[in-house]
Amino acid sequence: MEKIYRWFRSFIVVMALLMALLIAFSTCLSGQNKTDSLTDNLKAEMYKKLKHFTFGFYVDAYYNGTINSRSDTSNVVPFASNCPIQNQSRLNVAAIEIGYTADKVRGMLALQFGDAPNLLATPESEFIKTLRQANFGFHLSKKLWLDFGYFLNPVGLESTWPVLNDLSTVSIGGYYEPGNVLGVKLTWNASDKFWGGIMFGNHYSLAYGKNTHMAVLVFVYYQPIPRLTLNYNNLFGNQALKSAQIKNDILYNNFIIQYNPIDPVFFTGQLDFAAQSNSQMTPDTNKIATMFSGLIEAKYVFLTKFAVTGRYEFFNDYDGFLSGLYFYNNRNRGLFTQGFSVGFEYKPIKIGYLRLEYKHLYADPGNNIFISEKSDQLQSLVFTTGVRF
Q1: Residue 159's closest CA among 318, 305, 270?
Q2: Contact assessment for residue 130 and residue 96, using Cβ atoms and an 8 Å cutoff
Q3: Is the C or the N end of the chain the one with fewer CB within 10 Å?
Q4: Peptide bond before 365: cis, by omega within 30 degrees of 0?
Q5: Domains of the chain by start residue, with CATH
């Protein structure tokens, strides 16, 4: 009997120890489950936030080889919006893009470095060269967005980023177009075929830097059929310095047509027309001066990864209110140029490209604006390569 009692007592002790261990173990499991649950919730919350973000990176390198340039004492190519340094291997752009898009709010931040951004900066505005975009906006209604900050200008087809162009280099007309805008933008997405908006702010430009007067811009897109897009943009503002007594009001108009009749063929046309008050040459300095520029471009894609593009361009600023005046052949005249470019592109991967472009520009005979003011012509072979993802 005593043995049975001892055995029973031992059994009770063992069971008690087992129960204690089981309770302790279950407590640990419960704590671990809570931790896992907290981690899962945190992950879900982070994913919920991050799914609205987009991240992008872009790098472009180039070699701009100018032909017959031995007498050129400058290494900077005139009127270059990108690929500006000749006969050197250089970095065009290195950029980071961060975007945010949700139902009621959106934003964009793009920072850039390299030769192309450096062109944007005057000595007193060095901060602007690394900033490509910095803006945010609110969804006012189903079709209306209101944005604030630093925006890309809608005027013009071409970009200082080669990846956004069919040809890497930009036309001279593109060089003189208005630049980015610091201000406010209202966008109306009327339908899939029609959208547009209005902007108000301070604009910048490669050609004439910062203007302290405010400007109004309008942009309109219309797609009458799926393969045809019509685009009109304009800018109106005073180009005179803040301290000037005479106004130089400019109306800059920009028309763009893009047509893709069949999948491998693309056609693009652009015409710019600007008029500015109190800007003609002497003796009629109180009259309106005008400027015309434009381009025609055709692109053919073959074997999926290859493309060839051709472009004709012209720029005519007779009174020089954008380009300045040049004295040659015993007369004053604003800049007049024309030229053509032919480019070949190979895309080994979807996010990357290699391009070779031949460019030939002609100035008005006697103008001598190229090769350190020694030639009316400029010929270049431009190699660019880049990735954007």
Answers
A1: 270
A2: no
A3: N
A4: no
A5: 145-388 (2.40.160.10)
Residue 119, Cβ density class (10 Å: 0-12 exposed, 13-18 middle, ≥19 buried):
middle
Query: pLDDT band at residue 47, thresholds of 50, 70 and 90?
Result: low
Read out DSSP for 92-159?
Answer: EEEEEEEEEE-SSEEEEEEEEESHHHHTT--GGGGGGGGEEEEEEEEE-SSSEEEEEEEE--SS-S--
What confidence category does residue 14 fall into, taking pLDDT thresholds of 50, 70 and 90? very low
d(CA 121, CA 129): 5
Work out the pLDDT band at 188, boundaries 50, 70, 90. Answer: very high
Residue that has been written with the tokens 């208005």 in this structure: 178
3-state percent breakdown (helix, strand, coil) of the chain, nearest 5: 15, 50, 35
> Which among 380, 333, 326, 388 has a CA at the least distance from the CA of 170?
380
DSSP state of 15: H
Q: Which residue has the higher pLDDT, 53 or 208?
A: 53
Residue corresponding to tokens 């100018």: 66
- Distance of alpha carbon 274 from alpha carbon 323, whole angstroms: 12
- Residue identified by tokens 């080669």 is 162
- One DSSP character per residue, 322-383 reads TT--EEETTEEE--EEEEEEEEEEE-SSTTEEEEEEEEEEEESTT---BTTTTBSEEEEEEE
In the chain, the percentage of residues whose pLDDT exceeds 90 is 68
If residue 292 lies in a helix (H) or strand (E), which one and from where to where? strand 289-302
- Residue pair 121/129 in contact by the 8 Å Cβ criterion: yes
Helix and strand totals (H; E) in the chain: 3, 18
Residue with tokens 């692109």: 299
Q: How many angstroms separate the CA atoms of 207 and 80, rounded?
A: 10
Give the residue from 239, 240, 268 showing the smallest Cα distance to 254.
268
Query: Residue 332 and residue 318: Cα distance in Å, rounded?
Result: 9
CA atoms within 13 A on the CB side of 55: 2
- Total-model pTM: 0.85
What is the identity of the amino acid at 44?
A
CA-CA distance, 353 to 305, in Å (whole number)?
A: 9
CA–CA dist 357, 344 (Å, integer): 6
Phi, psi for 241 (deg, rounded to 5): -65, 155
Average pLDDT, the chain: 87
